[in-house]
Amino acid sequence: MPLKAFSAETMKGLATDAAEVIVEAIRDNPGGGERTQVHDVNASLAATPIPV
Known about the structure:
0% strand, 3 helices, flat, mainly alpha
């Protein structure tokens, strides 16, 4: 995704009251091994939550 398009979509998301900004074009196109990495991080956090 070109930087200009990414920036525009990010700024559009930041202009809302959303607690999280998701750039759909990036979300739907993970890099190599990214799904596994995200799954592993989520599993680790679920097993040992960060104390709050």
